[in-house]
UniProtKB/TrEMBL annotation, chains A, B:
Lineage: superkingdom: Bacteria
A single MF term (Gene Ontology): DNA-binding transcription factor activity
CDD domains named in the record: HTH_LacI (cd01392), PBP1_LacI-like (cd06293)
InterPro entries: HTH_LacI, LacI/GalR-like_sensor, Lambda_DNA-bd_dom_sf, Peripla_BP_I
Pfam entry (one): Peripla_BP_3
UniProt keyword annotations, A-Z: DNA-binding, Transcription, Transcription regulation
Signal peptide: none
Keyword Zinc part of the UniProt annotation: no
Species this protein is from: Nesterenkonia cremea
SUPFAM superfamilies per the UniProt record, alphabetical: lambda repressor-like DNA-binding domains (SSF47413), Periplasmic binding protein-like I (SSF53822)
Protein name: LacI family transcriptional regulator
All copies of domain HTH lacI-type, residue ranges: 20-74
Length: 351, 351
DNA sequence: AACGCTTATTAAATCGTTTCAATTCTGCTC
DNA sequence: GAGCAGAATTGAAACGATTTAATAAGCGTT
């Protein structure tokens, strides 16, 4: 009898089990590819007995679905991507954890990546996400990416902004009132009798930091004696805090601040390290307050007062909003704004 | 004149620019889809003038390649995946950073995810990676996933094990000599005159921790007076360290250890917190040594002596090995074993 | 045994890109 | 201007899954 010639290198199983596909599974189970697909994606459509036979064939062959093909046909991808400003910062790690937990309950894989606060990297990552036709993206914008985000949205990818409220109501967002945070910090310092505050913080093009500074300035202006200076740092890590502190300590003693407000806790830790090394007493000589309330600020040489942001909750809420956007495309955009809280520790109060 | 009927909703640009594809670009640029593809993937095959025309069409339409289709046809994916034990642990974050930097130079996107030391999550992540036919995977195994990794390898996905040398020479790996690390830690404590050491550490099924314990035990056995007890914790975070410490402090004072060896720095920080809170002097009453030398251990209440692992280097080396495996499939497996070093700080020496 | 009616299964079309082989075009030599 | 090499371009066939609409099978009723 004549056989149709099969164009694959047919010895199949023997040759190289690298490429088992639905049709192999189907053949082994004695059904059609369509049935295999149904068994996988709509189990209720296929009888229990064939389902089992198919499962056995799958196990036997070690079949793993080719996601590219699936996606191409399905036209969509369940996964969502998240671009972090900096994985090395425990604050963002915690936000990511919150998002991940939430997404896991929605059975959506999360792809993490980080921009390192580099607009170019961010753009590259967005490009990847775009090419992958992800269901959604969680992003803390660093560069000028609004047009990219718009394009993503037009393409049907949901977008939620994390840790920053965009002016326009284009995207749902999760954020924290950074101006309030800045005010809280300064308020606390003034209450403790400090008058000359130095704020140390990463590049001003980071919205969050700019707002914290603005809040701080507002509060300072309400007092007629207090002063605020801003020491801009190129990055937001421990090293930045150390360098800035060296600068501050190099000044004549008379112009030294009596309090330092660090734009985040990593910077605060750096500041603390150099103050300790220079023999400056915290808080007696200089009080120190950080931002983010990462867990390490509580166990620092001198436990650091900090402005708490509900990191994990922010992540999970962002993920929740994202799922909303994905699942109900018509729904209005939503903004969740969290309130920062001050967590007072020794670095501003003394032992 | 008669037109062939196009099956797409043709108003195209007007209707919804969501779906510009090669054929739209081709039409606008007055060439065939094949040429567009060539312009994108093999620019040298297409003349400068058409290349430019195509580029203009792409910009005009906002065309973004559909990666699923590309992959399906190409059969491969440049991206590599990495499964971290815990993003919240700065050590792993730093390893990831190293890998990411290295991979960026090879123009390979990195997909991060974390298993949270949960075998089930790990398996799920591996499943995703498998379905995506990634070029390679960097993984620190937690569950029993050797068979999955083998399958990945058979399928053509490169695998490199991070932070653990598998017995068999199946996969290239990057690791640190954890037994030596354990010995170094105990050695240092004994040298400082400590005799009764308590090791506090996460689940023993984590290879790294088991090895650190073994190394510690070996060293203790070389002394006839020293003792070592092991306090197993279910996790490897700050909270675990705190809980274990409460247990230790609950014991009668006479049986208290005079030194604690924490299996990592997060645990060490937790231990330190509870010791401080209980008024136990570090290192006078109890010396403390951690592991990983994360940057926060240097700025703790009492700076913590720690065993340094070259995190970033490990990540970049792992990525390098992975690229080797991907690019030269025939090459032999390679193992890079880093040596840990002790970084001495106050927590074992006094001020 | 013919009839509806539900349930299981399948053949064939499709997703959007890349690639191969074939074709057209270009410029150049003799 | 015929002949030709090489470059530029293209039509049509993949890639591997899913889906739709159609077919087959089962099953109780009359």
């Amino acid at each position: 009898m004549a056989h149709k010639v099969v164009n694959r290198s047919t010895p199949g199983i023997l040759k190289c089990m690298a490429l088992a596909q639905v049709r192999d599974v189907a053949k082994l189970a004695g059904v059609s590819p369509a049935t295999v697909s149904n068994a996988l994606n709509h189990p209720e459509r296929v009888s229990a007995s064939t389902r089992q036979r198919i499962q056995e064939a799958i196990d036997e062959l070690g079949y793993v679905r080719n996601d590219a093909a699936r996606q191409l046909r399905a036209g969509s991808n369940r996964a969502v991507g998240m671009i972090l400003l900096d994985v090395g910062n425990p604050f963002f790690a915690e936000v990511a954890r919150g998002a991940e937990n939430q997404l896991t309950t929605s059975h959506r894989p999360l792809l993490l990546s980080n921009s390192n606060q580099d607009a170019e990297r961010e753009a590259a990552q967005l490009g990847l996400f775009e090419e992958q036709r992800l269901a959604g993206v969680l992003v803390t914008p660093v560069g000028n990416v609004l047009h990219r985000l718009r394009r993503l949205k037009e393409r049907g990818t949901a977008v939620v902004i994390v840790d920053r409220k965009t002016g326009a109501d284009e995207f749902s967002s999760v954020s924290v009132d950074d101006k309030l945070g800045g005010r809280l910090a300064v308020d606390h310092l003034l209450e403790r009798g400090r008058q000359h505050i130095a704020m140390v913080g990463g590049p001003q093009n980071l919205r969050q930091i700019k707002h914290r500074l603005q809040g701080a300035q507002q509060r300072v202006q309400q007092s007629d004696s207090a002063t605020l200076t801003f020491h801009e740092t190129p990055t937001t890590d421990v090293a930045a805090g150390r360098l800035a502190t060296l600068d501050i300590l190099a000044k004549p003693r008379s112009t030294r601040p009596d309090a330092i407000f660090a734009a985040n806790d990593l910077i605060a830790l750096g500041v603390l390290q150099e103050l300790v090394r220079a023999g400056v007493s915290v808080p007696d000589d200089i009080a120190l307050i950080g931002y983010d309330n990462i867990q390490f600020s509580a166990s620092a040489t001198t436990p650091i007062t900090s402005i708490r942001q509900p990191a994990e909750e922010m992540g999970s809420r962002a993920a929740e909003l994202l799922c909303d956007v994905i699942d109900k495309p018509g729904a209005p955009v939503q903004h969740t704004v969290f309130q920062p809280e001050i967590v007072v520790r020794e670095s501003t109060t003394g032992a």
